[in-house]
Structures are given as C-alpha cells and as structure tokens.
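Final report, closing paragraph on structural work. Over the funding period we assembled a curated collection of sequence-structure pairs, and we close with a single example.
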Amino acid sequence: MRKALVAVLGSIAAIALGSALAFRLATKAPSAPPPGRDCAVLVLGYPSRGDGSPDPVQRRRIAAGVATLRAFQCATLVLSGGAAHNAFVEADAMAAVARELGVGDDHIALERRARDTWENVAFSLPLLEDRGALYVVSEALHARRGVRYLCRQRPDLCARAQPVAAPAPLWWKPLAAAYELWEWMRDRETPRGAPG
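Its predicted structure, as stored:
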C-alpha cells in the first residue's frame, strides 16, 4: 500500500513539475514592435460562464491583452470567439472586461464567429494583417499554438507574430499541457490547413 501511494504521489509530482516546466519554457516576454510600426493584440477566446458572465480565464487573458496593448501602445485589441460552447458569444463577454479595464470601444475589434483556435486566427486575420506587429494572447502553450496557426495560415505575417502568456493557476497547467500535447499530436497526424 505504501509503495502504491509513493508511486501515485511521485507520478503526480512528475506531472506537475513537467507541466510547470513546459509553461515556463513557453513563456517569454514579448518584444516591442520595431520603431515606427504599429501593432495589434489578438486575445484568443474561451467560453463564458453559463449565465453569460466572463469566466476567470477570459478575465486573465483580457488583462494580459490590455497590458500588452498599453505597454506597446497598440492601436487595436482584437477579441475573438463565438458562441462555441454555449449560447453566449465569447468576444462580447471579453469586450465587457476590456471596457471595465478602461479600453475604449475605438480600440476594440470583435471577431464573433470563431468556434476554435484555428478559426480565432482565420477570422481575425482581416483585422490584423495591416499591423506591423502582432501579439497573440492566451496561456503560454495555447498562445504558441495560436502563433503556429497564424504562421500556417499566413506565412507572410509569421515574422511579425509573438505569443503573450496570460497567467494560469497551478492546477490549470497539467490539464492545459496535456490538452496542448494532444492538439500537437493530432495536428502532426492531420495538419490544420493541409490540402486534401
């Protein structure tokens, strides 16, 4: 019994440390846009709560997006997400949070159709392509996937795109790391955007 308990606790510790390391390696401070170039911030969606109010994950992502918008004096905060998981449009809930944080409507652009990360990027590209630098905001590993999808959809914009890591609670990291590993393996088998 004691060996089994030690094995279980050891496995839990290994998973926690591994996922924390993955998040740490994926987190890198974004660099400022080149002098004289404007920028835009894309915040990837997450489902609102069942009553339509913003989820804490949305709040953390928006806070990171607004901080990036202000730090680099970007012109546009693009909020992407449709009613993918319930009846509420993710972008609308995120816009309410951005307004609470003092971002004016003249700096907010909404993409309200996306049902997943691939579509977050695809449907937001018209709002991003004329910008000098692009910042993709979500938790570290998800933000990197967003940049990977952007690079696949628009290779000409790839050099301008950087991931920005929103904070994530410790309990979130193992689940998110496992999900991102699954998405990465699935994408290797059948790459999104591949012909045929």
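Residues 2-26 form the longest helix (25 residues). Residues 35-189 form a domain with the Rossmann fold fold (CATH 3.40.50.620). We thank the funder for supporting this effort.
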